[in-house]
Q: What sequence folds into this?
């Protein structure tokens, strides 16, 4: 999955999560208000009955009022305890709790911790303690602030994600445009160089010179091809990663400082992967040049090709200055560079080539200050 597909998936996931949470919040709010309306109606019924009782001398009205007050509590769990701790009355508690003595005792202990008891003094001088818990409405109300905070955080996250991805998208378009323009600009003098090379062949110039010139012209053609592919999805074909790595290694070794001790270790058998050869060679070139810069043009540089059952790993190991662990991911960000000059695009392009185009992985496998760094590419075998 490429970068833009990941962005689309992330946006859809965040939007879906936001709508689900908003839906649940609205649904619970509707239920909450409906239950509040029922509570208010019960209060009005009791109030109306109390007015009727005050205006009446009928004892049945007093009895009806008391019964209404007692039965109006259908939500709040209560337990009435005698002075000796025995249960006198309980209401609105699930039978699964009251039928189990151990669970009931634990539940009563939890009620004692929630609210201070209401003490009733009976006419015979005995005392009872009324313990009560929170109603279902009150319990749900506790989670409303959390739900609101989650929604707000999601909204803030979506706004940040939107602006961040928009900025990255604009940068990608800018780099793609610059790369294509560079390829176009190189193409004109390159065509001229090819023509001059043909003239030199007629002039009987030393063939060794012409061979080297042809290599560099071929190299320029490959560079032009690389830049022209930036911004468009490249085609992948089956290729032997061992020979492709060796070829890129040999080219860079021949054109690098003699103070660099090059070493390569690869399996003898071919390893097939889906590959775009020019872009893969560009990645190896970026990693090797980065390693040479880290060693200031002097040190040991080793390239390893390792394989397991499912993947092949290419490691570029140097003895340079090393990278702080805090910067392991930051060094792949566009524009990041530790050098006084440069645009910080090499490792960013390498990551895009490997991750977005080849569905692989690239990372700093190991690094230690003053001892060197190991970059690792992982690709799936075919």
A:
């Amino acid at each position: 999955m490429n970068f833009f597909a990941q962005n689309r998936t992330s946006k859809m996931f965040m939007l879906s999560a936001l709508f689900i949470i908003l839906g649940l919040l609205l649904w619970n709010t509707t239920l909450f208000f409906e239950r509040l309306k029922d509570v208010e109606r019960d209060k009005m019924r009791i109030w109306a009955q109390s007015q009727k009782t005050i205006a009446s001398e009928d004892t049945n009205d007093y009895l009806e009022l008391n019964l209404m007050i007692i039965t109006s509590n259908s939500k709040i769990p209560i337990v009435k305890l005698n002075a000796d701790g025995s249960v006198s009355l309980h209401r609105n508690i699930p039978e699964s709790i009251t039928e189990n003595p151990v669970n009931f005792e634990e539940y009563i202990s939890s009620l004692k911790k929630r609210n201070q008891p209401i003490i009733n003094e009976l006419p015979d001088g005995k005392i009872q303690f009324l313990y009560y818990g929170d109603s279902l409405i009150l319990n749900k109300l506790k989670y409303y602030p959390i739900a609101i905070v989650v929604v707000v955080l999601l909204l803030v996250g979506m706004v940040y994600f939107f602006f961040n991805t928009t900025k990255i998208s604009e940068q990608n378009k800018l780099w793609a445009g610059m790369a294509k323009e560079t390829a176009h600009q190189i193409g004109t003098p390159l065509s001229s160089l090819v023509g001059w090379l043909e003239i030199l062949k007629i002039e009987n110039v030393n063939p060794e010179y012409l061979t080297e010139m042809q290599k560099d012209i071929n190299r320029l053609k490959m560079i032009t091809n690389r830049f022209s592919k930036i911004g468009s999805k490249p085609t992948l074909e089956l290729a032997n990663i061992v020979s492709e790595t060796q070829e890129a290694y040999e080219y860079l070794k021949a054109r690098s400082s003699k103070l660099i001790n090059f070493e390569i270790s690869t399996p003898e058998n071919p390893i097939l992967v889906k590959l775009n050869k020019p872009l893969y060679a560009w990645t190896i070139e970026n990693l090797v040049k980065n390693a040479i810069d880290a060693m200031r043009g002097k040190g040991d540089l080793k390239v390893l090709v390792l394989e397991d059952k499912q993947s092949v790993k290419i490691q570029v190991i140097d003895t340079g200055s090393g990278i702080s662990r805090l910067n392991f991911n930051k060094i792949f960000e566009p524009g990041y560079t530790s050098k006084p000059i440069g645009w910080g695009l090499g490792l960013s392009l390498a990551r895009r080539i490997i991750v977005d185009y080849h569905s692989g992985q690239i990372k700093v496998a190991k690094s230690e200050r003053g001892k060197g760094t190991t970059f690792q590419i992982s690709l799936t075998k075919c």
Observations:
- The chain has a mean pLDDT of 79.
- The two ends are 18 Å apart (CA to CA).
